[in-house]
C-alpha cells in the first residue's frame, strides 16, 4: 500500500486496531504484496495455497468488499505505471509527419508491439490473480453483483490504458491501426501479428454502456469510414485509368484482400460491412460507367466474346442490387440492336432486288430468308454461348434475352415465312454436305426461333405451302427428316397443329399404293394402254394449302387427257362419291427433246411441257408469239410468264426469246433453241418452287390467315361459353386469349367482333340487366 | 458408472505415477497423502489453479501442497470423493459435518458441497 496517489478507491488505514482488523491487515498486506510480485513476474516465489487461504479467510470474515476494492486499487496503480513507463514512450511521432518520417509505419508498428506486450503481461497476471482470488469470485463477486476479478482487470485495462483520460493512447492506437491497414492496402508489408494482437485486445474489451466490444464501439466505425473514403477515391481513380476488364480485376482483387484482411486480423462481424463498402464504392457507384466503357465495356466484351471478362462482370456485379439488372438491360438492348441490323439488311436486300428485277429473282428471295434465319441463329448461338460460359446459365438473363429475340424477330413481319423457308431449304438440300445429325441440330435450333414467333398460325400456313411443294415436286431429301421436323412441331404446338401436315404425308403414301394398283389394273385390263406413264397423286383437299376445288385452265395434249380419263375411271370405280379435279399447275413431266448436238431428257413442269409440245408442229426457225402461246395453251397469265421465263431466260435456254431480256412481255417471240447444248443427258428445268412471296401473294396469305383466325376465335368462344354457360366480358376475353395465344395473339377488338357475330347468329345473348355478361344459348 | 467409480477408487491404493504430495493437518496431526495431479485438476478448480501456474512448490518432480487447516481424517474422505465420487455421511457428527463443509467450500468441490447440503 505504498504511494497512493489516487484519492478514489483508497483503502483507509484501520482506525481502531483490534484482532479482526489486524488479521485483515495481515492477510491483505500479503495479498497486495503478492499481486505486486505477480506484476513483477515473480510469481514463482509465492505460495498458491497460502495466498488462496488468505483471500479465503478475508472473504470468509466478511471483508470481501475491502479485498475487492484493494485489488482494484493495486491493479489500477500498476496499469497507471505501465501507461507512463511503457506505453507513452512508445508513441509514434504524431500526425501526418509520421508517415513521412516513417514511411513503413515502423513507429506505429513498434507502438503496437509494445501494446501487445503490455496486454499480454496484463492478461497473464490477471489469470494468476484470478486463481488466487477464486474464492472471492465465487462467493463475494456473485453476491455483491460485481464483475469477476478477471473482468475487472479487463475493465481497468480499458479505462486506464486503452481509453486513458491522462494520455492520448486511444488516438494513437486507432491512428496506427488505420495507418497500418492503409499501408497494407498500398502493398506495403506490415506485421500482421501486432495488428492482430491489438485488434484481439479491443475485441476482448467490453464497452460498459453498450455492452458491445470496444472494437465495435471505438474502432470499427472509424475503420469503415476511412475505408469508405479510401475506396471512394480509389474508385474514381481506377475508373479513369483502367479499361473495364482491368478495372474488374482490380475490384476483384480488392474484395479478396478485404476478405483476407478480415480473416487474418479483424472481426468476422466486420466482413459484411467492409464488403458492402467496397461493393458500394467500387461496383455500385461505377456500374454504368464500367458497362458503358467505350472500347472495353460490356458491349465490346460481347462483340469480342471475352467470356472470362463477362463471367467476371457477372460475378462481380451480382454482388450489388442493380448490377445484374443493368447488365441484363444492356445486353438485351444490344441484342435488339443486332436484331434490328439483321432485319434491316433483309429489307434493304429485298428492296434492292425489287429494283433489279420487278417480278423478282425468286431464288435470291429465298436466299435472303435463309440468310436472315442463319444470322439470327448465329446470334442465338452467340448468346447461348455467353449464357453458358459467362452467365452460369442464369434464368433471369435467359428470360430477358428471349424477350429481346422475340421482340426483334416479331419486328420482322416476314419471320414466320423466313423460318419456314429456312427449314424448306434445309430439308431440300440439307443432306448434301451435312450429316443427318447436323441437319437435325439445325432444325432443333430453328425450333427455338419458332418459339419466338408470335403468329404461329402464319408460320403453319407457310410451312404447309412449302411442305406441299416439297412433297409434290419430290424435292424432299429425307422422309425421316421431314417426319422428324413434324415431330418437333408436334412437341411444340400439339397434335392439332400437325394433323393436316401428317394428312399430307398420308396422301403421298396412299397415292403411291394407288399407283401400284393402277399399273396392275392397266396390265390386266383390255383397254388400250396410254402412250405415256402417268403418275397421279391424289390429295385430300382439306389437308393441302392450295385451293383444290377447281381445275385451273389449261389445254392438255390429247394423249394426256386420255390417260387422265383412264385413271379417273379406275379411281372413281374404287372410291365412289369422290370428286377429282386435276391440278395441272402442280405436275411435272419427263420429255425427250432432240437438239442438233444430241438428245436430252428434260424434266419440266406440266405447263412447260404443254408449251414445248407446241413447238413440235413448227418448222425450224418458226417462232411463236407470246399471245399465240397464251391463246393456244390457255395457261393463266402469271403461270405462263413464269414458265416461259424458266424456259427462255434461266440457266438452260430451251427456247430463244426475241427481244432478249429477263422479263417476259406481250409481243415477245419464242423460238425452239436447236443449238442448245448441255453436258448432262438429263436436265431439270428449275421451276421456282420456294420463294419469298410477292406483295400480292403476301396479302392473300394474310387474308387467309385472318379468315382462319376468325373461325378459331369463334370456335374458342363457343367452346368456353358452352362450358361456362354465363360469363363476364373481360373474363371471356382473357380466357379466349389464353386458349389462342399458343397460335397467335388475338387482339381484343377481333374477339369483340366475333362475340357480336355470335350474338347475331344466336349462339350467345347479353344477359338482361347486365350488358357486360353473356349467356350461352344452347 | 458404478464400475468406473470402483475402478477409480482402486487408483487411490495404487502407488504409481503419483505426482502430488499433500500435507494435511499440522503439528502432531500431520499426514502425507499422495495423489495424481491429473485427477485432482479434473475434479477441482482449486487444484487446477494450483497446478496450472508453476508457482506450486515442486520436489523431485512432485507437487507439494500444504493444507494445515484441514485435518488428515477429513482430507482422506475428501480425497476419496475426488477420486470416485463416493462418500458416506451417516457417521458424521454435527461439528464434523460443518468442518467438512468448510473444507470442501475452500477447495471449491461443487459436487461435494451439493452432496453435503442435500444431506443436511
UniProtKB/TrEMBL annotation, chain A:
GO terms for cellular component: cullin-RING ubiquitin ligase complex; cytoplasm; nucleus. Residues 1-25 are annotated as: Disordered. Residues 1-15 have a biased composition (Basic residues). Coiled coil: none annotated. It is found in: Nucleus. Keywords: Isopeptide bond, Nucleus, Ubl conjugation. One of its GO terms (biological process) is mitotic cell cycle. Residues 414-648 form the Cullin family profile domain. Pathway: Protein modification; protein ubiquitination. GO terms for molecular function: ubiquitin protein ligase binding. Transmembrane segments: none annotated. Belongs to the cullin family. This is Cullin CUL3. It comes from Rhizophagus irregularis (strain DAOM 197198w) (Glomus intraradices).
Amino acid at each position: 500500500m505504498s504511494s497512493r496517489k489516487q484519492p478514489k478507491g483508497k483503502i483507509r488505514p484501520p482506525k481502531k486496531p483490534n484482532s479482526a482488523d489486524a488479521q485483515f491487515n495481515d492477510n491483505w498486506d500479503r495479498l497486495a504484496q503478492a499481486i505486486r510480485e505477480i506484476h513483477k513476474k515473480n510469481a514463482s516465489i509465492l505460495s498458491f495455497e497460502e495466498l488462496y487461504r488468505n483471500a479465503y479467510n478475508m472473504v470468509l470474515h466478511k471483508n470481501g468488499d475491502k479485498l475487492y476494492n484493494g485489488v482494484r486499487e493495486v491493479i489500477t496503480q500498476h496499469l497507471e505505471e505501465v501507461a507512463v513507463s511503457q506505453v507513452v514512450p512508445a508513441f509514434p511521432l504524431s500526425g501526418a509527419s509520421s508517415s513521412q518520417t516513417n514511411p513503413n509505419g515502423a513507429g506505429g508498428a513498434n507502438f503496437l508491439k509494445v501494446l501487445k506486450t503490455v496486454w499480454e503481461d496484463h492478461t497473464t497476471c490477471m489469470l494468476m490473480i484470478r486463481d488466487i482470488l477464486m474464492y472471492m469470485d465465487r462467493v463475494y463477486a456473485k453476491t455483491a453483483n460485481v464483475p469477476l476479478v478477471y473482468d475487472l482487470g479487463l475493465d481497468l485495462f480499458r479505462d486506464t490504458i486503452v481509453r486513458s483520460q491522462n494520455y492520448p493512447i486511444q488516438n494513437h492506437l486507432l491512428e496506427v491501426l488505420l495507418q497500418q491497414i492503409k499501408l497494407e492496402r498500398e502493398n506495403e508489408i506490415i506485421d500482421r501479428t501486432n495488428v492482430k494482437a491489438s485488434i484481439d485486445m479491443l475485441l476482448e474489451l467490453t464497452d460498459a454502456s453498450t455492452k458491445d466490444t470496444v472494437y465495435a464501439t471505438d474502432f470499427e466505425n472509424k475503420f469503415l469510414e476511412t475505408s469508405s473514403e479510401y475506396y471512394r477515391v480509389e474508385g474514381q481513380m481506377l475508373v479513369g485509368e483502367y479499361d473495364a476488364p482491368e478495372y474488374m480485376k482490380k475490384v476483384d482483387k480488392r474484395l479478396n484482400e478485404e476478405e483476407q484482411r478480415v480473416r487474418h486480423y479483424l472481426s468476422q462481424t466486420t466482413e459484411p460491412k467492409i464488403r458492402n463498402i467496397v461493393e458500394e464504392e467500387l461496383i455500385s457507384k461505377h456500374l454504368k460507367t464500367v458497362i458503358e466503357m467505350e472500347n472495353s465495356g460490356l458491349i465490346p466484351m460481347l462483340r469480342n466474346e471475352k467470356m472470362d471478362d463477362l463471367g467476371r462482370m457477372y460475378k462481380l456485379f451480382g454482388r450489388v442490387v442493380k448490377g445484374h439488372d443493368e447488365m441484363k438491360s444492356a445486353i438485351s438492348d444490344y441484342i435488339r440492336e443486332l436484331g434490328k441490323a439483321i432485319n434491316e439488311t433483309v429489307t434493304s436486300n429485298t428492296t434492292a432486288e425489287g429494283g433489279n428485277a420487278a417480278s423478282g429473282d425468286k431464288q435470291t428471295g429465298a436466299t435472303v430468308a435463309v440468310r436472315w434465319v442463319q444470322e439470327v441463329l448465329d446470334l442465338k448461338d452467340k448468346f447461348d454461348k455467353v449464357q453458358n460460359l459467362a452467365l452460369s446459365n442464369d434464368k433471369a438473363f435467359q428470360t430477358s434475352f428471349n424477350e429481346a429475340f422475340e421482340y426483334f424477330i416479331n419486328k420482322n413481319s416476314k419471320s414466320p415465312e423466313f423460318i419456314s423457308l429456312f427449314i424448306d431449304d434445309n430439308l431440300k438440300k440439307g443432306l448434301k454436305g451435312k450429316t443427318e445429325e447436323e441437319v437435325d441440330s439445325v432444325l432443333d435450333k430453328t425450333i427455338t426461333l419458332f418459339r419466338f414467333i408470335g403468329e404461329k398460325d402464319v408460320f403453319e400456313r407457310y410451312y404447309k405451302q412449302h411442305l406441299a411443294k416439297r412433297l409434290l415436286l419430290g424435292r424432299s431429301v429425307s422422309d425421316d427428316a421431314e417426319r422428324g421436323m413434324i415431330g418437333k412441331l408436334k412437341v411444340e404446338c400439339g397434335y392439332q397443329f400437325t394433323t393436316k401436315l401428317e394428312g399430307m404425308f398420308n396422301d403421298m403414301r396412299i397415292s403411291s399404293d394407288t399407283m401400284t394398283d393402277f399399273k396392275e389394273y392397266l396390265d390386266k385390263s383390255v383397254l388400250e394402254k396410254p402412250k405415256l406413264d402417268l403418275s397421279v397423286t391424289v390429295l385430300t383437299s382439306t389437308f393441302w394449302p392450295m385451293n383444290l376445288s377447281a381445275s385451273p385452265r389449261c389445254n392438255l395434249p390429247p394423249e394426256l387427257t386420255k390417260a387422265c380419263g383412264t385413271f379417273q375411271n379406275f379411281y372413281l370405280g374404287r372410291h365412289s362419291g369422290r370428286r377429282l379435279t386435276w391440278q395441272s399447275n402442280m405436275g411435272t413431266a419427263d420429255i425427250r427433246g432432240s437438239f442438233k448436238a444430241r438428245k436430252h431428257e428434260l424434266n419440266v413442269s406440266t405447263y412447260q411441257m404443254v408449251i414445248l409440245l407446241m413447238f413440235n408442229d413448227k418448222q425450224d426457225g418458226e417462232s411463236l408469239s407470246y399471245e399465240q402461246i397464251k391463246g393456244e395453251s390457255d395457261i393463266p397469265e402469271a403461270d405462263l410468264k413464269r414458265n416461259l421465263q424458266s424456259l427462255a431466260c434461266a440457266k438452260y435456254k430451251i427456247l430463244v426469246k426475241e427481244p432478249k431480256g429477263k422479263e417476259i412481255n406481250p409481243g415477245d417471240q419464242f423460238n425452239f433453241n436447236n443449238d442448245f447444248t448441255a453436258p448432262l443427258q438429263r436436265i431439270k428445268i428449275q421451276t421456282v418452287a420456294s420463294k419469298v412471296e410477292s406483295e400480292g401473294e403476301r396479302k392473300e396469305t394474310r387474308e387467309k390467315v385472318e379468315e382462319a383466325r376468325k373461325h378459331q376465335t369463334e370456335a374458342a368462344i363457343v367452346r368456353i361459353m358452352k362450358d361456362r354457360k354465363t360469363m363476364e366480358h373481360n373474363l371471356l376475353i382473357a380466357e379466349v386469349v389464353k386458349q389462342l395465344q399458343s397460335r397467335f395473339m388475338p387482339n381484343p377488338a377481333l374477339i369483340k367482333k366475333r362475340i357480336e357475330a355470335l350474338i347475331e347468329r344466336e349462339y350467345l345473348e347479353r344477359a338482361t340487366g347486365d350488358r357486360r355478361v353473356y349467356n350461352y344459348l344452347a | 458408472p458404478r464400475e468406473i467409480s470402483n475402478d477409480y477408487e482402486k487408483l487411490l491404493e495404487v502407488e504409481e505415477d503419483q505426482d502430488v504430495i499433500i500435507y494435511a493437518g499440522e503439528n502432531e496431526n500431520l499426514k502425507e497423502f499422495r495423489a495424481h495431479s491429473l485427477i485432482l485438476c479434473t475434479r477441482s478448480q482449486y487444484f487446477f489453479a494450483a497446478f496450472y501456474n508453476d508457482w506450486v512448490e515442486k520436489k523431485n518432480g512432485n507437487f507439494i501442497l500444504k493444507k494445515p487447516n484441514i485435518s488428515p481424517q477429513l482430507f482422506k474422505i475428501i480425497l476419496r470423493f475426488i477420486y470416485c465420487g463416493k462418500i458416506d455421511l451417516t457417521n458424521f457428527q454435527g461439528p464434523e459435518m460443518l468442518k467438512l463443509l468448510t473444507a470442501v467450500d475452500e477447495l471449491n468441490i461443487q459436487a461435494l458441497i451439493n452432496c453435503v447440503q442435500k444431506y443436511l
